[in-house]
Design a protein that fits this description.
The complex is a heterodimer.
Chain A (H helix, E strand, L loop, with lengths): L5 E4 L3 H13 L4 E4 L2 H10 L4 E4 L8 H11 L4 E6 L4 H9 L4 E4 L4 H19 L1
Parallel strand pairs in A: 1-2, 1-3, 3-4, 4-5
Helix pairs in contact in A: 2-3
Chain B lengths: L1 H42 L8 H30 L6 E4 H18 L3 E5 L6 E4 L1 H18 L5 E8 L4 E9 L4 H9 L3 H12 L3 E5 L4 E7 L2
Parallel strand pairs in B: 2-4
Antiparallel strand pairs in B: 1-3, 4-5, 5-7, 6-7
Classes of the chains: A alpha/beta, B alpha+beta.
Chain lengths: 127, 221
Amino acid sequence: MNYPKVLLVDDERDFVCTLAERLELRDIKVDIAFDGKEAIEKIEEREHHLVVLDLLMPGMPGLEVLKRIEKHHPNTKVIILTGRGEQEATEEAFRLGASYCLMKPMNIDELIDKMMRVLRSSESKSD
Amino acid sequence: MAEANAKELKFMGKIVGNVAHEITNIFAAVGENAALVQDILTYSPEGTSPSPERISRAFQTIERQIARGVELATRLNRFAHDTDETEKTVDLNTILWQVGSFGARLARLRGVDMRVVPSDQPLDLIANPIRIQMALFDCVQFLLDHLETCITVVMESRGGKNGTLEVTFSPEVPGESVESEVDVLFSLPQWTALEQSVERSGGKLVSSEASGRFSVVFFAT
């Protein structure tokens, strides 16, 4: 597999930019989108292996982004990372195909562990 | 009466839920930036100094997020104390800021910018502070739900004619969509529900059909 392409999607700029910086310090390069529409545009222009997606965002909500990814980019995996505690939303995300749901604030090691699991599993399926 | 109380409880739940979500985001941003400082110290190549600019930037973000949290907590505290009395003297300008603050995230999630323009005069009236906030919040929600192309909502308070106090809601909708959307706005069943919510707060809803603008009018006491 080539270097994995990861997209972080969150409208909380201070949070997502810092998370990207921390991942890069661990040699995990990521793209960033600040809302659902920008996320879809970035996925359309460049296939991503993994999207780490917030649920509540301006314009296009996370669940809608997830639906579109599942429909048009079935090889792209999704991890939900949200501050929203409603169980229905996370259940719906799993139903739509999300691999994991993590709650903010999260531990970066846990996030990386889940990211690696997802990427390894998609790599083994494509072999 | 029971129905009115249930609506107030639902409204308070919505406000507290939104604020809780905001606070989670603040904690997440503060936590990430504190951890970033630790990471910078840990991951700096041996023999090199960690970048002071990156550390300073992280601390500035933490300060900004803490200020955001303090502002939110202050408003939530004021909101909690608004339940102490069912009727008291309230300043409509303060109420306007409060509703603007709570409604801003809701608006932002719909891609709508919310602007608050308070009067430069104090606008005191005796009212139920929770009901008045609920009514004004319902007005914001009504516009967000039914003007899909709306890009800005301006909420303005002022002294009106004959000693009345007013809060005017002015939606800004791009070009051609104004007429088609506004035509139906005031004939929706939800408009009638909004009229009832405003009446419970002691106000009266007055529409200005040409622009989609409407006002909540209160009689000052």
